[in-house]
Structures are given as C-alpha cells and as structure tokens.
Amino acid sequence: MAFLSTLESWFDEHGRTLPWRGIDDPYRIWISEIILQQTRIEQGRDYYLRFVDAFPTVTALANASEEQVLRLWQGLGYYSRARNLHAAAQYIKDECNGVFPSSYNGILQLKGVGRYTAAAIASFAFRLPHPVIDGNVYRFISRLRGIATPIGTDSAYNEFEALLLKLIDHDRPDRFNAALMDFGALQCTPHPDCTACPFAGECAAYLTDRVESFPVKALKAKPKDRWFYYLDLRWQGKRIMQLRTNKDIWRGLWEFPLLETDHEITDIDELTARAHRFVEETFDIPPLPFHLSHPYIHQLTHRTIHALFLQADLLDKPAVLPENARLADAGEIKKLPVSRLIDKYLQEV
Ligand code: SF4
Fold it and tell me: Could you tell me if 91 and 111 are in contact, meaning their C-beta atoms sit under 8 angstroms apart?
C-alpha cells in the first residue's frame, strides 16, 4: 500500500530513538504513555527513567506508598495520573496475579487508561492492530485527508480510528503507530515544511492551501479563576504543612494551610484580618504580623490559580494541629510531594 510504504520509509530515515521504543514490556510502555499524556518528551524522558528505576516492576509500584509515588511525580502536574497508576498497579497485583493484561479490553479496564493509551500498550507490547490517535496523529491525518471534524471528541476518535484501521500494518502495528506519531511530531508539525514532505502530492490541506486550518479544534471553556491565600507559618525552623485530602486538584500533595476565596481580596487589611481569624480558629494562635509574598499565577488546564503567600513567625508552638497537618523542617519538606506552585515558592524563599 502506497501510504504504508511511504510512511515506513520516512520512519526508517527519521524515526526517533526513545527509551521506551523497541521494548515489549507492557509495564514500561504504560508508564511512558501515562507520563507523556500531558508532558513533552524532553521533560518526560527523565521522569520515565527515574520512575522505572525506582519501581522496576508493576509489583514494586503496587507496593510503594502513595507519598513515594507522588514525590517522584512532582513537577509533572496532573497528579491524578500518578494516583491512577498506583491504583492500577495494585489492581494488577491483587486481581490479575501481578500479570499485566494482554488484551485491548483488559488494558482498558485499568484506572486512568483510555482508548489512546490502551491502543499504544496493545500495539507496542502485544502487536495488536489498534491505531494510536494522539494530537500529532490528528494533525497529520486531518490534513492529509482534509477532515474537518473537531478533534478531541469521541466521534472524532471513532472517525479517525475507522480510517486508520484500514491503513494499519497488521504485521507490525507497533512500527506503524510509532511511524505515525513521529511523522506528526517531526514532519507534519503545527507549521510544517511541506516542500520536504513525502505526502505533499496527495495532502488535501497542502493542495488546497489550508494547512494551518487543520486540525479543527473544539471550542474550549475559559479556565476558572481561583484565589489561594497560603499561610506560611514558621516555628523554630519548622513550617506547618497540610495534606490536601479533598476531591480536588492536588489531592495527596502537601501545601501550607490554605484560605481560599471565590474572588480576589484587594484590601490588604481585609486579607490580614481574615488570615488572623483563620489562624486563630484553626490553630488557636494569637494574631500575627504577616509579610506578603509577590502574587503568583499558576495556570492549569481548567483553572487559573492566583496565589499569595502570607508569611509569619509564630511566637509559640501551635496549640492545635488538625489531623492532616504537621510541623516539618526543611529536610522533611523536601521529601514531601508538593505542587509545582508550592515548589516554586519554596525555592524562591
Ligand atoms: S504536506 Fe504538509 S500538511 Fe500535508 S502531510 Fe505533509 S507536512 Fe503535513
């Protein structure tokens, strides 16, 4: 088939060498795919190597504590990915006798695994003919065939999957998928050099001068604003740290006691008065002089976090500490999993 031979010849010359390529260990392929879901390859590579070094098998991951897993994940964001990996490893250990599922539907049962990841593991580890459809593949195929369906929806996935099932190399679906992904990542980039493309003569977008119009994207909702006022309370070289336990962003990570509001507090007197009340009610500590940090803006996919840190030295040990809080020195804090926002602040102070 012309498409296949053109793609695979291109891949022979330009394909990337990656630590998770050319292996058939489903555990390692799974880890790499989950890390790369929201992370660039350059950044993801180091995390992948550290992760499989710390947890070389699915059982090792299952036996680790959530805190160890989140600590290794720190800085990657989207922490539910790490919690899901951990839960799925425990499921494989307890429910599958420690053996990684080897069918597409079995893989799809794992927490945090969607159709894309299941297809990647099924094809790379078990050579099952399931095409992978990531952002790079959407871009390449939508341009090649002039498909204007907005991507990122179930119906778009179905449409692209049906098309790719007709093109996939049944003998080497792993190679086909790797080639497809690399082609989108390296050649059919957001602003490609189409004159160097082996598909230029048949590419619907290029031939009609609409390359930049593909892929068509569904409209995104505007991120919601949240205002976080963190209380960095210090006593004898230690700080009060608190574990996030609510079903919300950053669950399982540590941070400072948090006063969250649904609007910005611009009046400093009002802010410090609220902070005093909060500290008194939570820790039974008398009013404190606060020093304010500069404002931080932390962008998540669906949230914009506006953060300010209110620092204070305590005169006495806190009379009360909630169950999920503790006093920690710098060495202990270094070992706690924290969000990138808290990490940035800690590095600055
Ligand atoms: S011609 Fe350009 S737009 Fe079309 S597949 Fe090649 S690189 Fe992508």
Answer: yes
Distance CA 9, CA 339 (A): 43
**What is the residue-averaged pLDDT of the chain?**
94
Best of 197, 202, 208, 214 for a ligand 1 pocket test (most atoms within 8 Å of beta carbon):
197
Q: Which domains does the chain carry?
A: 2-132+148-179 (1.10.340.30), 224-348 (3.90.79.10)
- Say if pTM beats, i.e. exceeds, 0.90: no
Contact 143 CB / ligand 1 (< 6 Å): yes
3-state secondary structure of 17: coil
Could you confirm whether 33 is annotated as catalytic? yes
The residue type at 41: I
Q: What pLDDT score was predicted for residue 220? A: 78
Residue nearest to atom 1 of ligand 1 (CA): 200
C-beta of 64 in contact with ligand 1 (< 6 A)? no
- Does residue 78 surpass a pLDDT of 90? no
Torsion sign, CA atoms 32, 38, 44, 47: negative
Q: By percentage, how much of the chain surpasses pLDDT 90?
A: 83
pLDDT, tens digit, 9 for 90 and up, residues 301-335: 889 999 999 999 988 888 888 889 999 999 999 99
Distance CA(86)–CA(82), nearest Å, equals: 6
Average pLDDT over residues 74-101: 94
Residue 99's identity, in one-letter code, is V
Residues 121-131 pLDDT 10s: 999 999 999 99
Q: Is the CB of 138 under 6 A from ligand 1?
A: no
Residues in the chain: 349
Query: Distances from the Cα of 182 to the Cαs of 16, 112, 189, 277, 299, in angstroms?
Result: 7, 24, 10, 56, 28
Give the distance (Å) from ligand 1 centre to CA of residue 11: 15
The verdict on the CB of residue 206 being under 6 Å from ligand 1 is yes
**Quick check: 233 and 239 in contact, CB under 8 A?**
yes
Whether the CB-CB separation of 239 and 177 falls below 8 Å is answered with no
For the CA of 192, the nearest atom of ligand 1? 7
